[in-house]
Amino acid sequence: MDTKLDLQTEEDVRVLVHSFYFKVQQDERLNYIFSSFAEVDWDEHLGTMVNFWSNILFQTGKYKGSPYRQHVPLPIIKSDFQRWLNLFFETVDEHFQGSNADLVKEIAERVAVSFTSRMEYEGKFN
């Protein structure tokens, strides 16, 4: 039996972020949004996301920003958030278990719900 540890270090966060975005790049719909439409610089984005999640878990202060506005111009449909969330949960569960693993899933769900609600309110999905 493979015992998974909790997210405890920035290296753990790096593993999570890199594993998750590898899956995003394999997903036809999400990869289109990130790679084809947004033309994301993956090295920069991965570093930003490691800083974001490290800040969430360990209060590193390495992330300063407003992620919502960066997502507004993207051709996102409502179901993309569930797709993103499913891949995120799957990745967390493959690598980690514990209170921090639960916390990042809870925060990811809050982000997805918040972005969906705001975009819906702003008429983005019409």
Architecture overview:
This protein is mainly alpha-helical and 126 residues long. It has one domain: Globin-like. The chain has helices at residues 10-26, 28-37, 42-58, 67-71, 78-95, 99-121.
* Average residue pLDDT: 93
Number of strands: 0
Distance between the termini: 48 Å
Q: Give the name of the CATH superfamily.
A: Globins
Main beta-sheet strand count, sense and barrel state: none
Q: Class by helix and strand content?
A: mainly alpha
Instruction: List the domain count as a whole number.
Output: 1
Return the string of H and E elements: HHHHHH
Key structural traits:
6 helices, mainly alpha, globular
What's this entry about, in short?
The protein has six helices and no strands. The chain has 126 residues and is mainly α.
List the helices and strands and how they pair.
Blueprint: H1 10-26, H2 28-37, H3 42-58, H4 67-71, H5 78-95, H6 99-121
Helix pairs in contact: 1-3, 1-5, 5-6
